[in-house]
Design a protein that fits this description.
The chain has helices at about 45-55, 75-80, 100-110, 115-120, 125-135, 155-165, 185-200, 210-215, 235-240, 245-255; strands spanning about 1-15, 20-30, 35-40, 60-65, 70, 85, 170-175, 205, 220-225, 230-235. It has about 260 residues and is an alpha/beta fold. The structure holds adenosine-5'-diphosphate (ADP) and magnesium ion (MG). Adenosine-5'-diphosphate binds near residues 14 and 46.
């Protein structure tokens, strides 16, 4: 069953100006429940725009977005956050630096309503947060009352992931969420991501510039070029894909430029 459907989507930036940029014209994409999609594509191919369309940050000039069969084209970003979560490239974006880990988690548990903090945090909630932190295996449970701003980028990104999936969401959007991390931390966060997605059975869409990750993780791979899907590999086809295959396709798209294989 389709969890998300993009139908006949059109997006044009700065229409009727000298900078008019058509990104999508008659774009269609169906995402089934349980799919973990890695999305690759050159700069400017439309990846972030696609995520913004899904998250409700931008509204298409034509076409519709359906979630579990329901038209959500007009639904605001904060309304969509009830059933979808997003982790950004910048580790500073997912959490609030001056608040403690506990406060960040409590706020997320209440989906941004401040009463989550005012009412005080019950013991069973505390235990729940503590357990979830322990499961990360990063020692964050010992920093319960430390301001999030004092954590490393990797720890912050792990926390952002955890917070994003604290309430039951149906779609997880990952926007190059390991790109700002050093290679080793990046691996850790990627493993953690895979674990959370599998454990929670959440559907996921991950933009990555790391072709090795794109090939290794997930059960479907999409390549976007100039607003069009030029590779859609699932099942056995996805399993047989190699980094080299993707590098070759990229090579044909932008002759003379080498794509970082990661
Ligand atoms: N807010 C915007 N205003 C004008 N042009 C934009 C805006 N956002 C993106 N674009 C343009 O749309 C195209 C697709 O951008 P984007 O979705 O960010 O690509 P990607 O994430 O794949 O690098 C690019 O040409 C970009 O310059
Ligand atoms: Mg982008």
């Amino acid at each position: 069953m389709n969890l998300l459907q993009l139908k006949n989507i059109e997006v044009v930036f700065e229409r009727n100006t000298n900078n008019e940029t058509p990104v999508f014209a008659n774009f269609n994409l169906n995402i089934k429940r349980g799919q973990f999609i890695s999305l690759v594509g050159s700069n400017g191919s439309g990846k972030t725009t696609l995520l913004n369309l899904i998250a409700g940050k931008i509204v298409p000039s034509r076409g519709s977005v359906l979630f579990a069969g329901k038209d959500i084209t007009g639904l605001k970003e904060h309304e969509r956050s009830r059933f979808m979560g997003r982790v950004f490239q910048d580790p500073a974006l997912g959490t609030s630096p001056s608040m403690t880990i506990l406060e960040n988690m409590a706020l997320a548990g209440a989906k941004g309503h401040s009463f989550g903090l005012q009412r005080g945090i019950r013991k069973n909630k505390l235990d729940f947060y503590q357990t979830r932190l322990e499961q990360l295996g990063l020692g964050l449970e010992d920093k319960f009352h430390a301001p999030v701003g004092s954590l490393s980028s990797g720890q912050r990104q792990a926390l952002a992931l955890l917070i994003c999936t604290l309430t039951p969401i149906e779609l997880l959007i990952l926007d190059e969420h390991t790109a700002a991390l050093d290679p080793k931390t990046s691996e850790t966060i990627m493993e953690l991501t895979d674990e959370i997605i599998k454990k929670q059975g959440v559907t996921a869409l991950m933009v990555t510039h790391n072709l090795r990750y794109a090939v290794k993780y997930g059960n479907r791979l999409l390549m976007l070029d100039k607003g069009k899907i030029i590779i859609d590999a699932q099942g056995g086809k996805k399993n047989r894909l190699r980094v080299q295959d993707l590098v070759q396709v990229f090579g044909k798209l932008t002759p003379g430029l080498s794509y970082p294989a990661g």
